[in-house]
Amino acid sequence: MNEELENQLYFLRNFVVEGFENYMIDKILVCENLKTKSVIFVYLKNYGKNWQKYFLDAGVGFWEDTETINYSDLGDVEDDENFIFKDYSNKFDIIDNEISKIFCEQNEKNSQIVIELKNRKKIILRCINSEVFDSECEIVYE
């Protein structure tokens, strides 16, 4: 991203998150709606970096530096009984995988945020139905 935008909340259909190339993934936490199982937002932790929060809403992608390195400093990340946090690090078997590129791109009437890994796999946060504006979200590893 541009230096002018540094330390701000990004929300665009197309952007590249710079500064994560060659960093290894430590953890990925996903906040899900208990009833619908749709993804609300995602926390990403890389060794030596702050926690990053990202999500999709209103057809665009959002990316934010949490300004904390420690998970305990995130505080009450979601105070609603309708949400649950799940650790996808082991589910996707992505611990210690190196990042190649992180970007957001348009996906029909919505956007998707893609984390490309050096092993050519991708972690993708996308709308379940990309043709329906602001559809519920899912995270996939392919």
**Number of helical elements:** 0
Give the number of DSSP strands. Answer: 11
Q: Could you give a short account of the major beta sheet?
A: 6 strands, antiparallel
Shape verdict: globular
| Element string (H = helix, E = strand) | EEEEEEEEEEE
Note poorly predicted spans.
1-8
> Separation of termini?
25 Å
- Helix fraction, binned, reads under 10%
Would you summarize the structure shown here?
This protein is mainly beta and 142 residues long.
Report what the structure shows.
With 142 residues, the chain is mostly beta strands. It has one domain (3-141). The chain is built from no helices and eleven strands. The chain has strands at 10-12, 15-17, 25-33, 39-46, 52-57, 60-65, 83-87, 99-107, 110-117, 122-127, 137-141. The strands form two sheets. A six-stranded antiparallel β-sheet has the order 1-6-5-4-3-7, with no helix packed on it. A five-stranded antiparallel β-sheet has the order 2-8-9-10-11, with no helix packed on it. Mean pLDDT is 88; it is low at 1-8.
